[in-house]
Amino acid sequence: MLSASRGVLFDFDGPICDVFRGLPAPGVAQELAELVAQRAPHLGERVRGTDDPMEVHRISREGGAVLLGVVEDALTVAELRAVKVAGAPVEGAAQALHAAHVAKRRIAVVSNNSAACVIEFLAINGLTDLVAEVIGRPSLRPDLMKPAPHPVLAAANALGVEPAEAVLVGDAVTDVEAAKAAGARSIGFANKLPKWSALADAGADVIVSDMQAVADSLITLGASDRWA
Asked: Residue 126: CB partners within 8 Å, gap ≥ 6?
């Protein structure tokens, strides 16, 4: 599958970075929920009922554009704080990025996190030069986030490849759904055992349990390309 690809797309939170490792997501979700509840009390119960910052962001859209903007800005600030204390990249992630670069694949990061936090993390870890494009959360459009195909299509367009020539590596069902909707293929990263069946049920083309498996495949591909 990778040998037939021209573009390799990586989800960020999971395959590359454990974003909320040092700044737990439930705390961030609570902070955002209080912002929403203060400005839109009718949404308070719903936003306080989730520990997912992204879900609070999605719900905040129902409170209008101003509230959505406030929450989105606060989420981006929290993400920037989080990646600074997230530690090293996920094991095998840097190797996969390097291997994709050596194999002459165009590389993009496609994330529901902000582009700003992705760029910050790549810079902190010396990975910036390996990534051609960063497609982050669409501004004020949570409806365009994965599982919508928009980020995958935007990444393929930015890389100059057809969606069918792109492979998305992601750890969530929404990644697989976004890839399928865009006409791309997907590698499911089951970094937790329960994810394996969920990714399989969603239709992931391949499933791996660690990022080193992706790196090893790309290293083999790069070596074969050199000898071709």
From this structure: none
Place of tokens 């990586």: 10
Residue 128's identity, in one-letter code, is: T
Token couple for 82? 């989080």
3-state secondary structure of 185: strand
226 Cβ contact partners less than 8 Å away, ≥ 6 residues apart = none
Q: How far is CA 102 from CA 5, 73, 223, in A?
A: 14, 36, 9
**Pairing mode of beta strands 106-110, 166-170:** unpaired
- The rounded distance, in Å, linking the Cα atoms of 227 and 91 is 28
* Strands lying side by side in the sheet with 206-208: 133-135, 106-110, 7-10, 166-170, 185-189, 206-208
Whether residue 147 has a cis bond before it, omega within 30° of 0: yes
**How many whole angstroms separate alpha carbon 223 and alpha carbon 141?**
41
User: pLDDT averaged over consecutive 10-residue blocks of the chain (228 residues)?
Assistant: 94 98 97 98 97 97 97 98 98 98 96 98 98 97 97 98 98 98 98 94 97 96 64
Q: Are 156 and 166 in contact (CB under 8 A)?
A: yes
Which are the contacts of 70, defined by CB distance < 8 A and separation ≥ 6?
Answer: 35, 39, 60
Nearest partner of 99 among 212, 193, 228, 190, judged by Cα: 212
Q: Is the dihedral of CA 224, 226, 227, 228 positive or negative?
A: positive
Instruction: Determine the Cα–Cα distance for residues 3 and 15; give it in Å rounded to an integer.
Output: 20
